[in-house]
Amino acid sequence: MLSAQCYQKIDRELAKYPADQRQSAVMASLAHAQVELGWLSPDTMQEIADYIGMPAIAVQEVATFYNMFNIKPVGKHKITVCTNLPCALSGGERAGQFLKDKLGIDYRDTTEDGQFTLLEGECMGACGDAPVMLVNNHRMCSFMSDAKIDALVEELKK
To answer: Is 127 annotated as a binding residue?
Structure first.
């Protein structure tokens, strides 16, 4: 299921730890698998568990605990809006509502064309930059006005 390139990345993560501590690379392994596949299916989690040498339930516990892991299919572009109190009070709620209206979906939904999934997120550590959004867990967008949200959505559509 995972490519040879993905296994090479996982091997680099495993090399950072003693042989008896391979489970320490589970988060990085899940992240590499998610980048490649878009989400973490039960089969993918089993594959990682077998490769690392840890119980599948332990891998699943990690994947379900952290909200950066997708345990069900998501759109090509996952946009997470920080709605924690500081961001909410500084425009996060408004920005989230603007995105819901623009995309025609609610939080935890995916557009019919499979392009966008919208999520609420907890603190992203950039309260002074509110409203803040995270795109595909890798790109933080700050000071998101309606115009900046429009530009972001148009950029991601391309």
So the answer is: yes
